[in-house]
Amino acid sequence: MQEPAPAARIFISYTHDSDEHAAKVRRLADTLRAFGLLAVLDQYESPGPSVGWPFWMERELQAANYVVCVCSATYRRRIDGLEAPEKGKGVAWEGNLIRNLLYDAKSDLRKFVPVLFDAEPDDSVPLMMKQFHRHTLPVGFPDLYRHLTGQTSPPPPVNPEIRVIQPKPAPTLDPAWNLAARIEGGAPGTTNTASPAPTKPTVTREQAKAKLLDLLVSLMSADELRRFVAYGPNGERLSRSLPGSSVSLHALATELIALLERDGQLGPELFERLRQDRPYRVKDIDPVARVWSELSP
Question: Around Cβ 9, how many Cβ atoms within 10 Å?
């Protein structure tokens, strides 16, 4: 079993949208502390830090191992600089600090973790965090905790065996290039060189897509599938085209297959990426890959 990482310092960035929203943020911070993490929250600093809020925010952002950004429509406006100047000065200040850290070449982008409460839409994630993996609470709290404690699920395999595959066949030549026959006699080119008729695929394209759908649903969760898309070819554009977090894993995978088909990405490269991402599931991936290789281009 994987050992958890040492306790991390977690800074929670949010906007005071409502009393209920602030109470949920407080519950998140309290729970992280109850599970061994040092959550840092402005609500713990009543009536306020002695050094003042700007310096406190700057110090805590830099000291934090992770910054959990509780995204809402108000939070996005203030972080993206779209709010009226007289509103949300504290979060606007945080936004400037976060932006500077993101632009710092030495900053680890994994430090910033967007979260959404309940049915909050993906549109509430600030523009500069759109490509980051996000968690929806409360259902996604276990994945968030794994993220903040460096625990992966499932862990990668250890020392997988090298797979032996068939060697690449030698290229064929026109019978006229039978040089030995020109000395030993015979009539080069008299053999029947007609190419065999192409083999008809054993499944239709729709059946092949159904097999791919079953494979994707068995390989990944919805969050893992979105992350797989984001880090692949045209990941940012494809991620924007996917439905929101409220859809089921089956519906998400169905829409992804349709997008990949329109993009011309349903081919060997997709299955090679799946093998690299899930090497311990190659025995499940290869049969579906063979079905696709039999289909006509």
Answer: 14
Contact 242, 296 (CB under 8 A): no
Q: Do 23 and 139 share a domain, yes or no?
A: yes
Q: Do residues 74 and 140 both lie within one domain?
A: yes
pLDDT in tens, 95-116: 788 878 777 745 567 889 999 9
Task: Give 194's DSSP letter.
Answer: P
Q: Give the bridge partners for 215, in sequence order.
A: none
Q: Give Cα separations from 85 to 71, 92, 117 (angstroms).
A: 20, 9, 26
- For residue 20, the tally of other CB atoms under 10 A from its CB is 9
For residues 274 and 285, is the Cβ–Cβ distance under 8 A? yes
The pTM of this model reads 0.51
**Looking at the domain assignment, is residue 187 inside a domain?**
no
Number of domains comprising the chain:
2
Query: What was the pLDDT predicted at 60?
Result: 93
pLDDT for position 81: 79
